[in-house]
Protein 1
Amino acid sequence: MVYLNIPEDKNRLLSFYLATEEYVANKFDDKEYFFMWQVYPTVIFGRNQLIENEVNLEYCRTHNIRTFRRKSGGGCVYADMSNVMLSYITDENNVNFTFNKYINMIVLMLRKLGVNATASGRNDIMIDGRKVSGNAFYHTPRRNIVHGTMLYDTDMQNMVGSITPSDAKLVSKGIKSVRQHITLLKNYIDLSLEDFKAFMKRQLCDEEITLTEKDIEEIKALEQEYLSHDFIYGNNPKYNIISKRRIDNVGDMEIRIEMKNDIIKSINLMGDFFITGDIDAKIIKPLMNTPLERTRISEALPETLNDVIHNLEKEDFISLILQSKEQNLNS
């Protein structure tokens, strides 16, 4: 695997590294690439999440924490200079295989340090039953990207305050709860963060290249999309019925539908699920102007949805849509 060396610039924002992933996926050859990066306090939320549902914007403003949206699915995470973010670019198409390959690489690397690391759930790495790394997946036309966190250390107060309600009591309880569910790598190894990064690079990569000035300029051009207000904040979709539920092995899913005369006029999906295909072409557009009836919805959708949203069963999705109708009738 090739390590991507990025000339250091401490003023770079998280958006630059997201653009770097996209640039490498679209422009570089078909080798596997890996790089590490760090940012000043930042919250990053998933492609399908509403920022006001996930981020305590007032806390972020008062504590100088930046907020960015990524193009991958998954949930909301906090990053700072005490932990390290990891990016992996591959041409493997199968989502499960890509996740498993990457996560197993990281698990084996940690075990070489004597750490009892294991893969867990959809996308997590655990140490002694506590989460130390979460990861997300993003499919581009040419390649696939897996990126995630490695919690070497972090500011726990900021982590909880930036992604939970601002009430001081809840923040306090949140910190206690988070400490019960996550762990910090520094408690398990005798390496500084810089030494750990060097070890990880040696273990995972056998080749290295450095981004050129031309690469940097093209990445900065790509970065502008990630910096735009519309991309970060989006628009709250209009709706008159809403339904949400956690679906096993898929994640949290929220559906907002605008109806007219029992016909779907618009539909929006939000949550921390992983998109693996063209959600607009295969789900959103087919459902437009479709009656809110089980048979008609089933006919409008493709036979399988797993190649659009990871692990999603068609029947579970239809039930969630119809649940919104039932909730609307009972309200």
Note: The longest strand covers residues 130-139.
Protein 2
Amino acid sequence: MNSKRLFIVNKVTSLLPYSSCNKLKTLLYRWAGVVIGKNCEIFSGAKILGQGDILIGDNVFIGFDAMIMCNKGSQVIIEDYALIGTKSVIVTGFHPVTPEGPRIIGYEGTSSKIRIAQGASCGLGTTILPGVTIHKMAHVAAGSVVTKDVPEYTRVGGVPARFMKDLRII
């Protein structure tokens, strides 16, 4: 992705109406190097940052003020029909935290792929940390911090996110 183009796109999309102009937003993000499928709904205020690879499937919803930060060398995959709630944060990397070390992007650190599978949903204000896969049709409750993989058809919640319910059982 081109981080300079992303900067411009994030500024422009923040000026657009909240829930409309989706074709224009999609076109702008594609221009910046994000791979986006059909019929995606990206609310204004959502930001995509970094230099990694971001792949967004068809019919994906990304809520107002959501943020995706993808470090160079890492990847975020959001599959078809996934939902990213308002003010959610997806981050693929950490930099070292030591008394003598720098704490700035671009320095040594860890980066890991994040995958949000088909039909999965992340509620309002969730945080998805590096290396996590949220499997098919899983649900992350609002305000949760996901540090480990979420199995398919399950609901997790809390800080850190823990199993709450098997969604196949009614």
Note: The chain has a mean pLDDT of 88.
Protein 3
Amino acid sequence: MRILYASERPPYPYFLGGAARCAHQLLMTMANELGVECAAVGSSDYAISPWADPQPGEYQALGIQGVWPNEKRRALSVSAPLRSSPRPVCDELEARARPDEWGGIIDCGYPVQVFPNFLVALADFIDDFKPDVIWSQLEGAREVLDLAKAKGIQGVLYVHDAEFDPDELRATAELGCHVVCSSGFLAEKVRRVLSRGVHVVYPAAELYFDSAGDPDGYVTMINPHRVKGVDTFFEIARRLPAEKFLLLESWKLNDAALASLQSQLNQVPNVLFVRRVSDMRSIYRQTKLLVIPSIWEEGFGLVAIEAQSCCIPVIASARGGLPESVGDGGILIQNSLNADAWVEAIGEVLGDAFAYSEWSRRALRHAGAEDFAPLQLARRFLEVCSAPVLIIAWHVRVLNAARDRLQKLPVLGRLFCRDFR
């Protein structure tokens, strides 16, 4: 089978957020463990949020096995899958180059490339690669899956965010694609919008069972944004001046966001800010406790499983899919804005060595559950790709159309349609 991952947002290793790392882990597992020919492409014109080219010094930590000029890409992606066996990262010449300078391909165990004029280039790439399945997510998914349908190729929409546009989701689902959600919570929310069955495949995390957190390390938060609860994090740090806190960039911050963050950091001296890293092990090895004070509904919460695989307990908001990712390997806070509740929970986990050891044991056990094993998740994803599409019945389409019309009426829309949002 050949699977093409295509999204307007550039894929891993250009983006290092949870959705990108999940896609990478699934693609790498399918390519290296299950014999699937995989490729990933995105838009080099993407400008919705900041992103960065991988630098040669990061290649090894990012799992980049090589970089080739553009003319090698087509032969690699069509006639011969990339080798899965380890080999030198790059020769001296290629290690000095950046893939975007010449439209090169990055070998992450499968070929990765970004294109200008994305949809036009994607159509050509599809004709060359001849995938059996096109998987898309996030920005541009509707356009990608519309192209897949036009070319008679089965599409898969992987929904990661709970903050989706219902109308856009319905229009995309009606293209005849499979719909996969990153948690049971998200699947139920999507079902209410689509009135059809959807699949659940938990995000595949890179599990670091060979690494361990530091019981004397930091209380860590990843991704300093308001929707992720960074203001609550700073309030917690203010109330616990004797504790060391670490704040790690994930979504790349622009200059304005960095300046705003720095003004907060200046007021809380026990918080260390670290720019985004290519190897998360380096962060988890310094961490004793991970906090996820999200305000919005998380689709899943990949960092919870990653941290738990390092024996690090997690305290998180009881929002969205976080109860599924945290499980019994941590504590859930019902009111994410209540700093007192966070301080109390931190005291419960870090109160004494015996309590911390027990929470660490629970964290590791939860991360080791079969539900989160990358190979099992890859097999589950392939099962979805090969299954019949869960079609929307004609009468459900009629009801959806009627509901859409009602939503445009101010009074009736509020009365009859609010539950579907």
Note: The CA atoms of residues 142 and 172 lie 5 Å apart.
